[in-house]
C-alpha cells in the first residue's frame, strides 16, 4: 500500500508539473507566434509611391484568410486601418499608433465575435516608419502592425493536453501498479516460502527448513535450522542422559535390595549401603557432568580465552611443580571462543592437564582465529603441544576412546579426551591428534568452524 500510494503521488505530482510547464510553454509560445506573424507581415507590407498601402495577398497563415478563424491582422495607418479577411465581422479592440521600433504585447483584451458574443484576444504590436525610396522627399509616416489571436486558443490547447496527459498517466499508473504488484509478489515470494516452511516445522510436517534460499535469507534460515537442531540434540541428550542414569542405577539398587532380602547384619548392611550410595553418587555426578558438557547455547557472546587459560595453568604448574613443567602461550588477541564458559574450561582443562601429565618440562598453548564465512562469526584454532613421548599413530584412535588411558601407570580415568570430543562435536568442530613439530611430543589441535 505504501509503494502504491507513493507511485500514485509521484504520478500526480508529475502530471501537475507537466501541466504547469505546458501552461508556461503555451503562453510563451503564443507570444512568440504572434511576434513572428508581426515580423512576417512587416516583411510583406509594401506602399505605393503616393504612400498608399499595397494590401498583402496572403498572410503567413491561412487562418488570416478565413473569417472568424480567431487569428486577425490589423495595420494602423495615419489615414485609416487595414485588416485581414479573418477580421471581417468581429469587432476588434481599438488599436493605437506605436512609435517606430516599439513592440507591445497586450491581453487579454475585450472584443466582440461575429455572432455577437463577447470574447477576448491577445495582441502583439510593432511600430514602424515608412520612408519613400526618393531620399529627397520628406513624406515619411508611421504605421503599426497588430496581430491578434483569440484568448480561447490556449485554453483549448490546454484542455486537449490535459485530457491526453491525465489519460495517458492514468493508463501508465494502472500498468505500473499492476507491474509493481507482480514485482513485489515475486520478490517477497521467498519470504512467504520461509513462512510456509516454518509453519510446516511448527506443525511437525517437516524437521527443518529447506536448504535453498536467497543469500539475503540464508543467515535467517541457517539460524533457525541451527536452533532447531540444537533443541533436538539437547532433547535427545537429556533423554539419553536419563536413560543412561536409570540404567546405571539399576545395579546398585538391585544390590541393596538383595542385601535387604538376605537379612545381613547391621554392620555389614551399613557398609554395603555406604558403598552403593557412594557408587550411585559417583554415577549421578558423572552423568550430570556429561550432560553439562554436551550441547551449547546458540548466539553466545564471545569469550576472551587468555584469562581462563592463565587460571588453569597456574593451578597445574603448582601440581606438577615436581617435574618443573611450564606452559607457554601463543594467543592471538583477536581470537575469541563463542560458546559457554564451562565448555571452554572443560576443553582447556582436559587438554592442558593431559599435556602436563605427559610433558617433560614444556607445554605450548596456541590460540588463533579460525576460518571465516560471510555473515558468520569467525571460527577458532586451539592447539596444545607438549615435549613428552608423543602418541604412536596406531594408538591414536585407541587413546581417544572413552575409559582408555595412554599408559596405565599414569593416574586418570581415561574420559578426559572423550569429554573433549563430545564438546567439540557439539560445536561441529574436529579434533586432530599428531606429533608436535615444535616440541616433539603430542599435539592436540581443535578446529571450530565459523558459527552463526
From TrEMBL:
Domain Histidine kinase: 244-452
GO MF annotation terms: ATP binding; phosphorelay sensor kinase activity
Keyword ATP-binding: yes
Protein name: histidine kinase
Location in the cell: Membrane
Keyword terms: ATP-binding, Kinase, Membrane, Nucleotide-binding, Phosphoprotein, Signal, Transferase, Transmembrane, Transmembrane helix, Two-component regulatory system
Record's signal peptide: 1-17
Enzyme Commission identifier(s): 2.7.13.3
Source organism of the structure: Luteimonas marina
Pfam families, sorted: HATPase_c
Gene3D superfamilies according to UniProt: 1.10.287.130, Histidine kinase-like ATPase, C-terminal domain
